[in-house]
Structure formats: C-alpha cells, structure tokens
Amino acid sequence: MSLGLVYDEDYLLHEHTPTHPERKERLQYTMDQLEEEGLLADPDVSIVEPSMATDEQLSRVHTQEYLERLRSMSASGTGMLSVDTHVSAHTWNTAKLAAGGVATAMDVVATGTHDSSFVMARPGGHHAFANDAHGFCYLNNTAVGITHLQAEYDVDRVLLWDWDAHHGDGTQSIFYDDPSVLVMSTHQDGMTLFPGTGDARDVGEGDGEGYNVNVPLPPKTSDEGYRTVVEEVFEPIAEQYDPDFVFIEAGQDNHFTDPITDLGVTAQGYVSLMEHAVDAADRLADGRLVASLAGGYGIEGGLPYTNLAVIATLLGLDTDAIREPAVYEPPSYEPDVSDVIDRVKRVQSDYWSI
Ligand SMILES: [Zn+2]
Q1: Ligand 1 centroid vs 251 CA: distance in angstroms?
Q2: Considering the entire predicted model, what is its pTM?
Q3: Of 32, 168, 180, 350, which sits with the fewest C-beta atoms within 10 Å of its C-beta?
Q4: Mapped to the 3 state alphabet, what secondary structure does the chain carry?
Q5: Measured in angstroms, how far is the CA atom of residue 166 from the centroid of ligand 1?
Q6: pLDDT band at residue 17 under the 50/70/90 scheme
Q7: Is the bond leading into 195 cis (omega within 30 degrees of zero)?
Q8: Mean pLDDT across the chain, nearest whole number?
C-alpha cells in the first residue's frame, strides 16, 4: 500500500499565540513520532509537497468578499475572525497551502500515484464557511479539495466522514444542498461542545435533503460506542450511497487525553475507525481514500499516537503494538449511544433503509 503523506514545514508558520491549543507543535511532535517509529523511512511512504490553493480552487467554495477580507487582514499582520481565531502575517499563505494540500492529495490518489493519502496540515478547515470562519479555521480545506476533485476527475459522489470531536458546521453549510457529497458526522453533542450545532434533525435541504447525517454523541463515548455507530449508521448508509471516493476529516480530538473535548476513544479505537474507512473505500470506491488531519490537541500524547495509529492502518501495517500515551480509565458508567442511534435512524429512515 503506497501512501502519499502531504506535508511541508511551511505548515508551521501560521501562529495564534504560543499557548494556543492549535499551535505548530501539533505537527512537529507527530512528525517526530512518525520518524521514531520508522514510518518516514518506510518505502511505501512518500512525502508529497503540497501546492498552494489557486484562486479558482478557492472561489469554488468561498466568496470573493471573504477571501479579500482574510487576505488583507493577514497582509496587515494582525486581526481576528473570532475570539480564538487569530490572523497573523503567515495565516493567508499557510491556510492556502493547507487547502492546496488537500487538493494535492486528491490528485495523487485520483491519478493512481498513491493508493491513499494523508494530509498532515494546519490550520484546519471544517469550521470555515463560504463567507466567514471561526474555531481555529480559515479556509475550508476539505471543501476546496472535494470540489477540485469533482471538477478535474470523473468523480460524481464523495462520501465525507468527519469524525472530529467538534461538529463541522462550515462543511455542513457548504454542502447542505449538494447531493454529490454525503456528509456524515460523528461528534460530541452540541449541548456540551463547541460549536453547538450538528443536530440529528439536520438532514440537508433542496437537492441535498437526505445527504447530511449527524450523529451527536454523549460525552465519554468510547471505542465501543463508535463501533456501534459505524455498524448501525455509517456502514448501511455508505453502502446505499455507493460513493466514487471516500474522504475522512480525521479529527484526532476524540482521544481520551484530549484537553479541550470530553470523549473516550483510544489509539486502538482510531485504528478501528480507520479500518472501517479503508474497508468502505475498498468495497465501494476502488480503494480511493484521502484523509486529512483536523483537530487533536493532546500535543505530546493523544495527537502523535492517534496520528501514528491511523497512518499505520492506512499502510496496512501491524498495529497491535501501538500503545496508549496514558492509562485509559473508563468512566464509572458506559455512555449509552442507543438513544442517539434510534433518533438518527428515525430521522434518516425517510432517505435510507436503516
Ligand atoms: Zn475538533
């Protein structure tokens, strides 16, 4: 299995403040971990240089007014999109390189250069809307990549599974009326976590009605809960949608050590999530799969270990030896996901056999 790992040291340039959870050390610790474990020397792994997103690629997703606002804010050297989403001199170019990185990943998989690709980029993108952004995001990398893929290659239907702990409100909004992208999101429920959206009743609108699937999970949901959701919701809907391409918004902030969320997934749980994604891609989309890093803020613990777990899984390596960065203490109760699954099934049964 050959993997194109999209990475560039310029992804380290954009900064908020030195103590902001979304800082350059997220990628530095991960790349160190991959090197220590020998993955960067693996003959099946190639570092792929990202290209900068073009104006044409960006304008498929974002308004000119927003792009100009972000560019000029960054050119001035300082600004804020929201209280925790700062703009600095390098933000514009780093964000364009992250969005271009997803487009590059699409290219290397669509042309068959690599079997799969993982985009090790920052800043993230799934809280970026057509005309605004928040939540540490600026440009919607995923939407830029998917619309590029659909414009340049013979790809009609893309299955997008956003497994980040936070609901991808920007991505949902961009594809809300678009049946050519099935957006499935598993996330910590909006009553207990930013950005507060992602209700199970949000199913899309217009031509896109039925092509948005939200599974809001209770705090502390762990590997077992995720496995149940995958088997009872994700797999049957994916099967019926029959995508040409699978995209994973790989938020690594479901890990039990993550400092800003409250879920309970382990590194081995991430192996299982990616195994399901690979299996869906193999069965439904000729194996064509791209994954892109989203959140993940356990900079020295959860993040490098979960990144290692999903990348090793993409490569088909033996993952049994992947350790946890800390001892997992299960909660005194197992969060019950059955109510959520029943609710999702009731809503989605108007569109899918589920
Ligand atoms: Zn997140």
Answers
A1: 6
A2: 0.98
A3: 350
A4: CCEEEECCHHHHCCCCCCCCCCCCHHHHHHHHHHHHCCHHHCCCEEEECCCCCCHHHHHCCCCHHHHHHHHHHHHHCEEEEECCEEEECCHHHHHHHHHHHHHHHHHHHHCCCCCEEEECCCCCCCCECCCCECCCCCCCHHHHHHHHHHHHCCCCCEEEEECCCCCCHHHHHHCCCCCCEEEEEEEECCCCCCCCCCCCCCCCCHHHCCCEEEEEECCCCEHHHHHHHHHHHHHHHHHHHCCCEEEEEECCCCECCCCCCCCEECHHHHHHHHHHHHHHHHHHCCCCEEEEECCCCCCCCHHHHHHHHHHHHHCCCCCCCCCCCCCCCCCCCCCCCHHHHHHHHHHHCCCCCC
A5: 4
A6: confident
A7: yes
A8: 97
Catalytically annotated residues:
127
Which amino acid makes up residue 311? I
pLDDT digits (tens, 9 = 90+) for 250-297: 999 999 999 999 999 999 999 999 999 999 999 999 999 999 999 999
Residues 6+ apart with CB under 8 A from 91: 14, 70, 73, 74, 123, 138
> How far is ligand 1, taken at its centre, from the CA of residue 112, in Å?
30
How much distance in Å is there from the Cα of 253 to the middle of ligand 1? Answer: 6
The confidence band for 331, taking pLDDT boundaries of 50, 70 and 90, is: confident
What does the alpha-carbon distance between residue 120 and residue 49 come to, in Å, rounded to a whole number?
11
Per-residue pLDDT at 127? 98
156-177: b or e for each residue (b if 16 or more CB lie within 10 Å)? ebbbbbbbbbbbbbbbbbbbbe
Residues of the chain above pLDDT 70, percent: 100
Q: Mean per-residue pLDDT for 169-185? A: 98
